[in-house]
Structure prediction request, 215 residues.
Amino acid sequence: MGSYDESIFYQQIEEAKELVKRNAKFTEKYGKDLYYNNYYRALFQKEVLINFFDLPEEDIRLDPKGNTGPDFNSIMLEIFNGEMKVQWHKPKNLTPKNLGMCRFDKQNDEMRRRAIYDYDALMYSSMRRNGRIVFSLLILGQENMKHIHPLFKKEQDAKIQEIELCQQKSKRLSRDDIAIRVYDIIKLLNDTNMIIILDGNKTNKVNFLELIGDK
Prediction:
């Protein structure tokens, strides 16, 4: 066995302490913990919305009702129950298989299953670990959201079957969430009911699918 370099461990400790201290100062200054409920990711998504729609900063409100309410709302966009999703993107390029998933948790609970049908907006972003957003998918308005409800229903039905099977066999449910492929959402929708933002600029469905090598 190779020798263990203890100095690496203590270097990690010192760097972690520095990050915690900086976050504490941020929390004291702005009243928000960057790491709580992934607030820093929502900040980066908010920046995309502000820049793309040329909105005043105060129009996009994050967690307007705390953890019990929507992820964001906007008076100017007429969004009152918006949901935000992020997935880390490590590969160099975008492909149909690595666009990511929109995950909705606690789908073993009937009230939580019904709640996702009440969203009047969905923003999904593929983000690198340095905070740069590669692309975002926006669905704005209840009417446009209805187009993806069949995807919700399909995954929920499969989850309910899984729950019932686990109950019959007295087994523990491995995951309580459902996952919907972003690729499936894009293929289902068109440019009239979704917006794709790539590197800060709007692109259409045909160009985006060509970019990711969709056949």
